[in-house]
Task: structure prediction
Amino acid sequence: TLLFAVLLIPTMALVGSMFSLERTLVADVAEASKKLEEASVAMASLDVAAASASFAVAEQRFRDAQAQLQDVGFGVLSLVAELPISARITTGAAVLAGGEHLAAAGEELAKALTMLGGFTPEQILADVFVSPEEDSSARRVIQQDRVVFEEALLAAAAHLEGAVEARSEERRVGKECRS
Result:
């Protein structure tokens, strides 16, 4: 019975720490989600600076939560693999990854909108309608800005793809846990 007691106490402490971790992660995700909502409202009102700041905070919160989960380590998660908390933590990891990707995509979109807001109609027309032989400084500026704009859109698309993949993983784990 002494051996049982020696093994039981650390196991109970481990299970308790897993539930504590879950509460912390839920709080972090709630805060990050709130920042995503704030960013969404800011984007809708075209307040790109506020949206970018909220997206950045959300991304960092999701990243911090993922770091907490990684600090636990695979070995500890393997020990509690048969507990219901394990499935929630595994599913939570996918949600955190998806949230981070969404926030990063939002930051890239805000960056693209900032670039778009810097273009005047005259600059856009100059880029479209000026002959290629005419190499004006205005044309070079808008071409450089357009490259940055396109790169931001491509980065946003890549992050959105990552969010979709994380959502698929979350759904897969959820199905696996239910069966």
In short: The chain has six helices and no strands. The CA atoms of residues 138 and 144 lie 10 Å apart. Helices lie at 2-44, 48-72, 74-79, 84-117, 121-129, 137-178.
